[in-house]
Design brief:
By secondary structure, the chain is an alpha/beta fold. Helices cover 29% and strands 24% of the residues.
């Protein structure tokens, strides 16, 4: 198995469906599986996902309680069979051949453990996709004077994108860079990273877990890379959510077909 795609779902029925469709439409030439972990959605997501599981399009785990983003990723990760694991937000659309090209790139760069591509908002604008680990100086700068255009050249930014500033920092994400951390919306991870003990810290229910995940990888000696040459669209939807029985649909077949 070349690739496992793990998607954590919570009340994003339509977006999850569109995300899965984009994977089926635009990923060919790879042996891959899709694992969806649903965190007790109440919007009809589970009914829709069960249909896909019955058609052997996805592997499905259904929690009867919202266990959080990190926990859901860990659940999917434990079932993953791929050489690489992509942790993918449910509100994303993946463009043509993005995963194929990143897969080939990763095969050539053995010391890179985690990669992300350029993320685009639904209006085509570039979205911030990572930065450098927070230090006291970086956080103070980020909160006070980072809007000034020259500051990022002097102090590596914790979060380079400044959406409300005159100088937004978009150019930062137009170049390939080694960063400290990447946004959890799209993390393409080498299996050896996970085998070395890197996991999602479940003390983070939502937000910040991606920084911690990348910190574990970096301190284990892996490079974390942002690749602007590959891109996908991202439709942001703010979804906030508040041990259990788990419904599991275990499937093993690779998928390469469209569903209606």
């Amino acid at each position: 198995m070349d690739l496992t795609i793990v998607i954590v779902s919570f009340n994003t029925k339509q977006y999850t469906r569109q995300c899965i469709q984009s994977l089926l439409d635009h990923t060919s030439g790879l042996k891959y599986e899709i694992i969806v972990v649903d965190n007790a959605s109440t919007d009809g997501s589970v009914i829709e996902l069960r249909k896909l599981a019955k058609k052997k399009i996805i592997n499905l785990l259904v929690n009867n309680k919202n266990l959080g983003f990190a926990h859901g990723n860990n659940q999917g990760m434990r079932l993953a069979k791929g050489k690489f694991i992509l942790f993918l937000n449910s509100d994303t659309l993946v463009g043509p051949k993005v995963l194929n090209e990143i897969f080939v790139w990763m095969l050539k760069h053995k010391r890179v453990g985690i990669v992300s591509c350029q993320l685009l908002n639904s209006d085509g604008t570039v979205q911030g996709t990572g930065g450098y680990f927070p230090t006291l100086m970086r956080v103070l700068t980020w909160m006070t004077i980072q809007d000034l255009p020259f500051v990022d050249r002097l102090i590596k930014p914790f979060h380079p994108m400044k959406s409300k500033a005159l100088f937004k920092g978009t150019s930062f994400f137009n170049k390939r860079r080694e960063l400290d951390w990447l946004t959890g919306a799209f993390l393409f991870v080498r299996r050896e990273v996970l085998d070395s003990g890197v996991v999602w810290d479940e003390d983070y229910f939502m937000y910040g877990e991606d920084v911690d995940f990348c910190y574990q990888a970096k301190t284990s000696g892996w490079q974390v890379m942002y690749l602007s040459i590959f891109s996908k669209t991202l439709s942001w939807v703010a979804v906030f959510s508040n041990e259990n029985d788990i419904e599991i649909w275990n499937l093993t077949e690779d998928v390469s077909f469209r569903y209606n």
